[in-house]
Design brief:
single chain, about 110 residues, alpha+beta, about 25% helix
Length: about 110
C-alpha cells in the first residue's frame, strides 16, 4: 500500500480500520485514510479552499455536514509520485499542529 510505504519513515504511526478503509494515525491524530479508490487527508483548514480547486479533490461530507480540513483525493489525482507526495506531505505538515480528537486526548 502506497500510504503505508510513504509513512514508513514517520514515528508513531498506527493503523486503524475506519472510514471504509485503513486510517493512518500519526502521533495519535488522524492523518490519512485509504480506501474506495481514494484517500482522505486531514489538512490545514486555512488551505482548504485553495486545495479544493485541484483536480480530483473534493470536500468530505458526512451526514450532510462538510468537514473543513478534510478532503478526498481520487486515485487518478495521485497516480504520479509527485502528486501523491504532495497530498501526503500536506497531511503530515498539518499533523504537527493538529489537535487530537476528544477520544484520543484522554490516552
Amino acid at each position: 500500500m502506497r500510504v503505508r510505504e510513504a509513512l514508513a519513515h514517520v514515528r508513531k504511526v498506527e493503523e486503524k480500520r475506519m472510514f471504509r478503509g485503513v486510517t493512518f494515525m500519526v502521533n495519535g491524530k488522524m492523518c490519512v485514510s485509504a480506501g474506495d479508490n481514494k484517500i482522505m487527508c486531514r489538512i490545514d483548514p486555512s488551505v482548504y479552499e485553495s486545495v479544493l480547486r485541484r483536480s480530483g479533490c473534493s470536500p468530505v461530507i458526512m451526514k450532510g455536514r462538510e468537514y473543513r480540513g478534510f478532503v478526498y483525493v481520487d486515485e487518478d489525482a495521485i497516480k504520479s509520485k509527485r502528486d501523491f507526495d504532495y497530498w501526503i506531505g500536506l497531511a503530515l505538515e498539518f499533523n504537527k499542529r493538529a489537535k487530537a480528537s476528544r477520544n484520543n486526548r484522554k490516552r
